[in-house]
Specification:
mainly alpha, 3-stranded mixed sheet, 41% helix
Length: 242
C-alpha cells in the first residue's frame, strides 16, 4: 500500500503549527470531477468462481477473477488497458508497494500488473472471502491508475499538516473500498455482511483507512449503486472520510 506523507513527517520533524482543518479537495478536477464518475452502471458479468484448496486451483481462481474485472470495467474507463496477473515465487515475500516483507498471501499493483503471492492462508482456505477481497481491492488501484486519479492524488500538496495528509490518504483508500463494492455488484457477488471485507491487513496503518463505519458506508454505497460515480470521496464531507 502506497502512502503519501507530509514533508514534516517524512523528515521526522515536529509540526509547530496547530493542525489544519481538512476539507473537501479543491483545484484538482481529476479527483473531484473525473470523467469516470459519469460512467454508466457497470455491466453484469457472469463470473463463476470456484476456489479449491490447492495452489493450482487458487491460481486459476485469481486469474479468472482478474479476467472478469477486466471485462466489467472496460466500458467505464476510456482507453482501458487490460491488466494481467503475475504470481510471485513462494519465497518472494517482498512487497513492491510497501517495501515490507510479508509472509502471508497478498496482492498489489506493481507498475501496470497485479502481482500475487500465494501462501497457505489463501490456498487452504475453503472460503474465498480473503482472496476475493484482496484482489478486488487491488483492482481499485488499476482504476485509479488508468483514470488519472492516482496521479492526481500523488500530486496533492505534500507540505500540508499531517492531519490534512492523512485525510487525503483516507479519501483515496476509501474510494478504492467503494470500487470494491462496485466490482462485487458487477460480478454478481452476493454480500450479506461487509464486516469481514472491511478488515485491513495488520501491517497497514489504520489511520489511512478510515473508521470501520465509514469503510462500511463507502463499500455499501458502491455496491448498491453499481457505478463508479457513487465513489467520489473527494467531494465528501470530512466526517464521511474520518
Amino acid at each position: 500500500m502506497i502512502i503519501r506523507l507530509s514533508v514534516g513527517t517524512a523528515l521526522g520533524l515536529a509540526l509547530l503549527s496547530a493542525p489544519a482543518l481538512a476539507e473537501p479537495i479543491k483545484g484538482a478536477p481529476e479527483l473531484t470531477h473525473n470523467a469516470l464518475y459519469k460512467a454508466a452502471k457497470l455491466p453484469k458479468v457472469t463470473c463463476k468462481l470456484t476456489k479449491g484448496t490447492s495452489g493450482a486451483s487458487t491460481k486459476k481462481y485469481v486469474t479468472k477473477l482478474v479476467g472478469c474485472l477486466n471485462k466489467a470495467w472496460k466500458p467505464a474507463i476510456k482507453g482501458f488497458v487490460p491488466v494481467k496477473v503475475v504470481f510471485k515465487d513462494a519465497d518472494d515475500k517482498d512487497s513492491c508497494s510497501t517495501g515490507m516483507t510479508v509472509s502471508e498471501s497478498f496482492s498489489e499493483i506493481c507498475a501496470t500488473e497485479i502481482r500475487v503471492r500465494l501462501a497457505n492462508d489463501w490456498i487452504k482456505a475453503k472460503s474465498d472471502v480473503a482472496v476475493f477481497t484482496s484482489i478486488t481491492r487491488t483492482w481499485g488501484g488499476v482504476v485509479t491508475g488508468q483514470t488519472g486519479i492516482g496521479k492526481a492524488w500523488w500530486a496533492l500538496e505534500n507540505d500540508a499538516s499531517e492531519s490534512v495528509m492523512d485525510e487525503h490518504n483516507r479519501r483515496y483508500y476509501l474510494q478504492i473500498g467503494c470500487f470494491v463494492g462496485v466490482s462485487a455488484k458487477a460480478l454478481g457477488r452476493q454480500v450479506k455482511d461487509w464486516k469481514p471485507v472491511v478488515k485491513v491487513p495488520e501491517f497497514w496503518p489504520n489511520r489511512f483507512q478510515g473508521k470501520s463505519a465509514n469503510r462500511l458506508y463507502w463499500l455499501d454505497k458502491g455496491y448498491k449503486a453499481g457505478k463508479p460515480g457513487a465513489c467520489n470521496t473527494w467531494t465528501a464531507s470530512s466526517s464521511k472520510v474520518a
